[in-house]
Amino acid sequence: MSSANPWQGLDIQSEWERFSQRESSTSNIWTSHVWVESMHCAACSGRIEQNIKQIPGVLAVYASAASKRVRVVWDAQKISPSQWFADLDQIGYSALPLNEYNAITDRTIQQRKMLWRLVVAVFCMMQVMMYAYPTYTADSNDMAPDMVQLMKWASWVLTLPVMLFSATPFLSQAWASLRQRQLGMDVPVSLGIIAAFVMSTLATFAPGGWWGDVVYYDSLTMFVSFLLIGRWLDVKLRNRTAGALENMMRRLPNAVLKKNQAGEWVQIAASNINVGDILFVRPGEVFAADGKVVVGNTSADESMLTGESEPVMKATGAQVIAGSGNLTSVVEMQVEQVGEGTQYHALVNLMASASTEKPGIALLADKVAQPFLWGVLLAALLAVVYWWSVDPAKAVMSAVAVLVVTCPCALSLATPAAMLASAGTFAKGGVLIRRLQAIQAISEIDTIVFDKTGTLTENLQQVQLAETHADWGNTLILDMLASITRDSLHPVAKALHTYAVEQDALTDLVMHDWQEVVGGGISATLDTQADTAVAVRLGNAQFSGVVEAESGAERQVYLMAGNVMVARFTLAEQVKPHAKAAISQLISQGLDIQLLSGDRIAPVKNLALQLGIQSASGLQKAEDKLQHVMLLQQQGRKVLMVGDGLNDGPVIAAAHTSIAMGTGVPLTQAQADMVILGNDIGVLVSLISHCKKTILIVKQNLLWAALYNAAGVPLAIMGLLPAWLAGLGMAASSLLVLLNALRLTDWDKSRWQKGQA
């Protein structure tokens, strides 16, 4: 690249890390998110994807006109950010790093410019209409020819600011598209604007030719005004429907108070926080990193991240998460995770990816955008051919009306506007969408397969009974239990670890060859305090190699030292509060509900009986669950898999669509299409209903866009639709689509419980 490339400053890794995420700690593959203000339609997004994909080193590009975001996956060994930033500039789309302050500033500047363009267009339109009105109402003998000509000149002068200032976004974008030999939404619009202005100018300064002496300044200025009004309101409505993501990305503070080595509080930039720092957080401020409270007690607002509206008490030693708000008291916190390691960062990354992802139903607009625009030009040419022999002036103006009325704004907005409205609404309610395709997929399901532990039952179980071997000391047994379960995320292991720690067990025994077997248990070699290496296993009866005791529905977990069973633990789990009501309502909606669990058959059958689930299977390993779901899919079923995300990775990835309960799950590794951040399984009922409503609104939008064009094009070709009315219809159709999508911003996730016992 040339040294004049203005984006070369982004080639420094510390700079591109501000708006990019690495695929893994050892990978050279990065995913960057940028903001493109001038991307307005499916044709624009398609052109961006097509051009950037051709650059060597760019692996994938996802552009969304609805959210104005572009996601670029690239190889740092083959390309630098300045190269694809410069390429975006060359094709007429100036990009800005998404999470930088200047991106927000640029948006504000662009909105103000658009408002000024709108003000100028509306003012000139009103003046032009004032001059045009007498010519429409007066008889031919009421006005002198010189006065009529003077009004035309005045209208031409008033139209110049509209052409040179108000309409420049459309004209410049159209020129950029034509230079790349591609069509965008602004091409037919600009052709219509230019044709109307040229015809009117000829009629003003050289009347008497085939173009006649009729001017269209009123139609031109009115059309530009309507177009700008539509685009202005479009920006406002986009910000409202997609605002959840931006609110999250701007939630962390820019500066924090940190305790230095002298014990003094100093203000530093949030980007300079390190693990181990002590931060001072006042009421009303936002926690800037993940960590724990070391001094003080307070309550925190975690609604932005978990969807839980109730404040969460945070005593000394409690964990706090970045992005949550301190509500009541001054506290000091010790930083444990910063940057990419925080839960907040994981949420933002997944939402940013979802905002640029295109569901299957949205690809329709991308596929038809270019052919549709070529069809528009052919229809305009048909209008010219049809009317030219009768009235050349009317032929040109009919073509202008065709170009205006078929502007594909409504078609390109129909799907993404509704999808992003629901995505933002779900985010506010504690449901994170990883793939927008999930909204469409969930609306089609006929079967739901549930995991048990952590999904339908509470994540943390309680140890009801602990039986230990007489020849082994309780202290050593608890130390082994606490150490071997220390790094596991499985709910049973976490419950046993909590039980051991509460009895002052040590968690730092040296371990070798630690391994967790899905559906079985944990094995490791532990160095005891007597410097003896012991092969330890913790898990179910089959994994431990013992005969299972009869215990009904209760879970038995065995701790083995070699071939000796040194302890047996009995755990009890509690059904989630809303699980029974939720399952009942899902069944009443005609959905087939099934339960698959790695737990023993007795507790699985017992839970199924409590919840009214007819099909339930226990002792299911990960591969068994996968085979079961694949068999259902072979039968033509649309399967939704709901699990805790800890040991259901293969089946979650293979299902038609999937939802993970997000409590304690590392979101950066989640394979689920959606993550319910809270603990309420009942949200699933209203979530499915809202997904169906979303697809219904998408279909309504697509139907309206198709009917509008089907009715408008024939009227325009026949000369029955003036340019100004075509502009009004085009703007109104786009606004109708966006207003219809706004119906999806109202989601009461507790509404499902009404009428339930």
Automatic annotation (TrEMBL):
Subcellular localization(s) per the UniProt record: Cell membrane
Domain annotation HMA: ranges: 30-96
Membrane topology: Multi-pass membrane protein
Keyword Magnesium: yes
Keyword annotations of the record: ATP-binding, Cell membrane, Ion transport, Magnesium, Membrane, Metal-binding, Nucleotide-binding, Phosphoprotein, Translocase, Transmembrane, Transmembrane helix, Transport
Keyword Cell membrane listed: yes
Spans traversing the lipid bilayer: 114-133, 153-175, 187-208, 214-233, 372-389, 395-427, 702-718, 724-742
Gene3D superfamilies: 3.30.70.100, Calcium-transporting ATPase, cytoplasmic domain N (3.40.1110.10), Calcium-transporting ATPase, cytoplasmic transduction domain A (2.70.150.10), HAD superfamily/HAD-like (3.40.50.1000)
InterPro entries: ATPase_P-typ_cyto_dom_N, ATPase_P-typ_P_site, ATPase_P-typ_TM_dom_sf, ATPase_P-typ_transduc_dom_A_sf, ATPase_P-type_domA, HAD-like_sf, HAD_sf, HMA_dom
Family listed: Belongs to the cation transport ATPase (P-type) (TC 3.A.3) family. Type IB subfamily.
Name of the protein this chain belongs to: Heavy metal translocating P-type ATPase
